[in-house]
Amino acid sequence: MAKNTSANIGFEEKLWAAADKMRGNMDPAEYKHIVLGLIFLKYISDSFELLHSKIEKEDGSDEAEDKDYYTAENTFWVPKKSRWNYIRDNARKSEIGKIIDDAMYAIEKENPDLKGVLRKDFARPALDKQRLAGVIDVISQVDMQENQSRDIIGRIYEYFLGRFAGSEGKGGGEFYTPQCIVKLLVNMIEPYSGRVYDPCCGSGGMFVQAEIFNQNSEGRNDDLIVLGEESNHTTWQLCKMNLALHHVDSSKIKYGNSFHSDQHPDLKADFVLANPPFNDSDWDGQLLRNDVRWKYGVPPTSNANYAWMQHFIHHLSPTGIAGFVMANGAMAANQSGEGEIRKNLIKAGLVDCMIAMPDKLFYNVQIPCSLWFLSRDRYDHKFRNRHDEILFIDARKIGKMVDRRHRELSEEDIKKISDTYHNWRSTSGKYEDIKGFCKAAKIEEVEKNGFVLTPGRYVGTELVEEDDEVFEEKMKRLTTELNQQFEQSKRMEEKISDIWNKIEY
Q: What is the pLDDT of residue 417?
């Protein structure tokens, strides 16, 4: 990644502020696709123009219009009326919406990899064309340089995804996992090479971060193969565009439902990276009661958490590792057979590491989450034999508030957590338990704790009381207690009223 770009000094934020002024009263969910679609168009057009200028200088203008040159350089071919200069020069025309739609259609026609990916509804009457022209003016400000273009536009795209997740309110950030969480997951599992799989890939942030890790580790683009699936078509489009912006091959990113139409049925991945929907009750699990994936127990139809876990395991290679985000309740849930499934996973030696995360990390939910790491390789293939241990890390006190609602982990925080894990699983012997932060617990101790996986039970946390009670069960108990208190209060009022009426005053 380029290090000295204007993007590193708040360029993304300035661009966001300028573009957001153009939104007016438009719903963020709608405005998002306008801005991100135009950013993508600007990127592929500028990438094309850079190569076009080079070819024209070396071989002449006729050769610069030969599509084969661009195919050979893995650059999208952009027809003349799809190039950004044409869009910019016509931005104030009343038919600018149709001009952009035609540009998108032409790009898809010339580049089969983008078929069905680009949005083509800019001409709809409800879209204010003056605001559209303003957004085009703002995006035209992006200063593209040959050795920085991918970095700048990719950073802008990821930044805008995150800001839209924050501005859309409830549900708006479902497809976007905060970058610090993704970085931590990637740094933990270290995908130097191999197949990286995400069956609920959202906008593709896991893949992008895996590629960044690979490049920073002096890897090559072809060292990693990314495979994924996304059930929301609009989000799938965002993912394909996001990966194209980062020059990541997206040919194996499929549209579909991983539970009911698994697009990679025979895959055995080296790495799984995922942030599945929390506590999903609408996954139609009743249609999959006899599925081959439920090796460790049939997951309840009311909650897909343990269905996702077993889907990940099903797709892991014999030496594979999965790192994923999960709702905290899954660490201690016992209803509908979930506790039995967790017990089976632990006794099978699959649970490698558990991390309790702080709250306020996500844009659309304030509740804390946990990170799980499941590994098929916990004996002596690559690291030390740790099949009878689980590492617990309590990171709830880590991170800093960046505003009143959001917390972030710093690079130092990420390094502290990941180094702890790497020291524990390595043969170096550098690992030590730290009271209140980390502990390597034997399986026997976990069994004595009822196979509950909340780190606070093991690391000796003193200042924060661990709450292992499942949310639904806790609400049911508290509601019953509240109703009882209401009844008691009512009886007391009646007694006081009777006494008062007997007083002759």
A: 98
Take residue 451 and report the two structure tokens written for it. Answer: 């196979």
Fold topology of 179-459: Rossmann fold (3.40.50)
Pairing of strands 369-375, 316-327: antiparallel
pTM higher than 0.85, yes or no? no
- Secondary structure string (H, E, C) spanning 175-222: CCCCHHHHHHHHHHHCCCCEEEEECCCCCCHHHHHHHHHHHHCCCCHH
User: Half-sphere exposure of residue 71, counting CA atoms within 13 Å on the CB side?
Assistant: 8
Q: Which residues of the chain have pLDDT under 50?
A: 1-9, 146-147, 170-174, 462-466, 505
User: Residue 327: which H helix or E strand, with range?
Assistant: strand 316-327
For the stretch 132-144, pLDDT in tens is: 999 999 999 876 5
Distance CA 431, CA 422 (A): 9
230, β-bridge pairs: 255
Phi-psi category of residue 349: left, alpha or beta, with phi > 0 → left and psi -120 to 50 → alpha: left
Our CA dihedral for 474, 477, 480, 484, rounded to 10 degrees, sits at -110
> How confident is the model at residue 30, as a pLDDT?
81
Strand ranges of the sheet holding 194-198, from the earlier edge strand across to the other edge: 253-255, 224-230, 194-198, 269-274, 316-327, 369-375, 351-356, 389-394, 438-442
Contacts of 457 (CB under 8 A, 6+ apart): 392, 449, 466, 468
Q: Could you tell me which CATH number the domain at 6-167 has? A: 1.20.1260.30
* AA letter at 131: R
pLDDT of residue 365: 66
CA–CA separation, 386 vs 472, rounded Å?
34
The ranges assigned to domains in the chain are 6-167, 179-459, 470-505
Q: 72-125 pLDDT, tens per residue? A: 998 999 999 999 999 999 999 999 999 999 999 999 999 988 999 999 999 999
Tokens of 466: 């661990």
- What DSSP state is assigned to residue 299? P
Per-residue pLDDT of 427-467, as tens digits, reads 988 999 999 999 999 999 999 999 999 999 999 964 444 45
- Residues with Cβ within 8 Å of residue 176, at least 6 apart in sequence: 161, 162, 164, 165, 202, 203, 205, 363
Residue tagged 């009223």 (tokens): 497
> Which residues make beta-bridge pairs with 370?
326, 356
